Fold this protein.
Amino acid sequence: MTTPLPPTDPTAPDAQLPGEAELAALYRQLPRSEPDPALDAAVLRAAAQALAAGEHPLAVERRRGPRERGDWVRPKDQPLPNLDEVGVAPRRRTPPWLLGLGSAASLVLVAGLAWHLYRQPASVPATPASDAADTVAAPAADRPATAAAGVAAAKAAPPAETAPAAAPMAFHAAVEAQGVDPAQERELAAIRQLFAEHHDEEAQQRLEDFRRQHPQRELPEDLRLRLRQP
Amino acid sequence: MDAAVDPDAMLMLAYARGDLAAFETLYARHRGMLYRFLLRSVRDPQRTDELFQETWSRVIGARARYQPQAKFSTWLLQIAHNLMIDGARRQRPLADGDEAEVALAHLATPEREQPDHALSEFERRRHLQRAIEQLPDEQRTAVLLRLEQELSLEEIAAVTGVGRETVKSRLRYAMTRLREVLSE
């Protein structure tokens, strides 16, 4: 069984330790040093400034030398410095009219580019090179003299057909905007490539298949001329 | 401790509400005891100034979240003690014996003492000062808090972060050592 201790008041003086009274008396005779007036002024000024600005000036003032490892820098509850005081220009708001103008200009640019790309494959037959290629549409055995011209046309044609490949994203966007299936366009491009490489039989077969699968699709002029009539 | 019975806590709360005069009163009441506690603990006047200023800086910075759960003086000394511990961890060397003696020699000597009697009193005080300086850090802190601040064992325990019996043991060892030095 333990005897409960009487409750103790933390602020009540304890019973003195042996010899404490003598030491305390001698200690009280020691010189009573005080902080310098400059130190007093610094603390009081810091207290006043903290109230005035809600800041913590001692956190800056007390450092006299370079920062040492483990140095306390500033309390975490410090507010961020005013940007105007430190010379940082605030970010300007963009005028609303500028946003509207930029959006309209972008729309016009995209629409124009799409229209241009969409019209470009249809204009290929109108070029002289495709006129020459048209002459290859006849069987090579029937018209051997035109073979060289056909090869030249085949070499000349790809730049016109590869134009969409140079800007695939814009091309597909334009095609979709016009309601044309990109898969069909790819198939037609492949057929053109086969004709250009003189795989005429395969090209004809795929062109006829394409025609059967998509009877509503209007063939481009160059391929329509190559299609064998039934 | 209830703030209603601690006038220092009331002053601190008043300062937190914007009363600068309350802080000036609070500062006047504690500036001397805090400065002496720091000076006799670290024995380096320059370091004492830094710690003194930093302690009050912490008080000022904590004014908005201050809650009087203990005596203001206990809280103030706790801040100072923690800053001293942080400084010791940074391995900053304390002033050597000569430097400390020079620093303590600057302290004013009471003029009321007679020259013949003053010599022995001076010697006793000097012995006491040197004996306190030579105590281990924990014992020196406990003695200073006891003799300078007249804190209770519980209050010293709160400031230093150890148990009451540990404080009592440190004080016993320290005072025994001081009495031995004075009796030599």
User: Anything to note?
Assistant: Residues 118 and 147 of chain B are 22 Å apart (CA to CA). Chain B has two domains: 1-96, 108-184. Residues 108-114 of chain B have pLDDT under 50 and may be disordered. Chain B touches chain A through 58 residues (CB under 8 Å).
